Amino acid sequence: xxxxIERTTxxxxxxxxxxxxVSIAEILTGTYFSPLGIEKGLLAIxxxxxxxxxxxxxxxxxxxxKGKTAMETVKDAFGTSGSLLFIxxxxxxxxxxxxxxxxxxxxxxxxxxxxxxxxxxxIIGLCILGWLRIGLTNFTKINGTAxxxxxxxxxxxxxxxANQTIMPTVTDDSLAFSMxxxxxxxxxxxxLPLISDYTHHAxxxxxxxxVSVIIYSLTSTFMYCIGMCAAIYTGVTDIAVIxxxxxxxxxxxxxxxxxxxxxTFLDAYSAGVSGExxxxxxxxxxxAGITTIIGTIAAMLFPMDDITNFLYAIGSVFAxxxxxxxxxxxxxxxAYTKPINVxxxxxxxxxxxxxxxFLATEFVLGSTLPAMVLTALVVLILQSIKKGGKRRERA
Length: 395
Known about the structure:
By secondary structure, this protein is an all-alpha fold.
C-alpha cells in the first residue's frame, strides 16, 4: 500500500504495537484465566507471552532482514502458489479478528451507553474506516496522543477493579494450566502473519522488530492481567458487565472506542497488504475498507462471545508455518522460485497434525512449543533427505 513506502521510526512502530495490545480482546482473553487464581494465572500469562514473543520476533526478524512483508516472506519459503493457502487463510483470520474486535467493542460500549449493540458496531466500523483514511505513516502524533490517553484510562480501569468489594472467586479446574499457556501464546501468534507488514519499511527494521515485540509483549501481558483480575474480583467474565460494574461511564466509553479502533485498524490494514500479495491487481486500501465493512456487518448480526476455538485454530495454522519459515531462512536464506515447495508444504501439514494432537491431549507445555520444535525437526530431516537425493543424482 502506498503509505507503507515512507520509512517509519522506532517511535511510530512502538506506538503501533502498543495500540495493538491495548484492546478489549486482550482483556477478554485474560478473563478466561480466572479459574487458575492470580498466582497460577499470572505464571501462565508470563510463560505464554515469553514463548509467543520469541516466535513473533522470529517471524518479524525475517521480514526485517529481507525488507519484505509477512506474506512475501511466506512466498519465499513455500513458493508463489504454495503461499496462496496461507495468504487466503490470513485474510480470513483478519476478517474474523475485525468482526470479533468490533463485536467486543460494541458490546462494551453499549453497556456504558445503551444505543443497542448493532448501532455501536456501526459507529466503531465508521471510526475504523476513518483511521484507515489517515494512513499508517500519517498518524504518529494523533496515535501517540490517543495511546497516551488510552493507557492512562486503562490504569484508571485497573484501579477501579482493584477497589471492588466483591471477594475473589474460588479457583477450579475448568481450565488446565497447559491450555492457559496456549491461550497466552495464542494472541501473539495471531500477529505472526502481520508483524513484518509494519516493520519491514522502518528506518531500522531489526531494531523496529525488537521494539515492537517487547512493547507488544509487555502491554499484552498487562492487558491479560487486567482481564484476569477483573474476572476474579468482580466474579464475572463478561467484559461488558465488568465495564458496567466498574462504573467508568464516559471514561470507559473512551477506552472501548480507542482500543477497538487502534487495534482493528491493524487487522484491516494487513488484510489489504495480504491482498496485494495475493494479486497485484488488488488495491490494498480498498480491501482494507471491505474487510472493515464485512467485519462490521458480521459484528452486527452474529454472536462472538467465546473466541478460544478461533485462537486455537490460528495457532494450529500459523505456529507450524512460522517454524517452517524460520528453518527455511536458516537453512536456505533464498527465495523459492518454483510454484510449490513440496518439502516445506509437507512439513507444515505434519506440523499442523502435531499441533492438533498436542491440543487434544492437553500436553503440559501446551501445543505451540512442542509442535514448532517437532516441525523444525521435520523440516531439517526432509531437507536433508532431499539434498542427499540430489547429491546421489549428480553422482
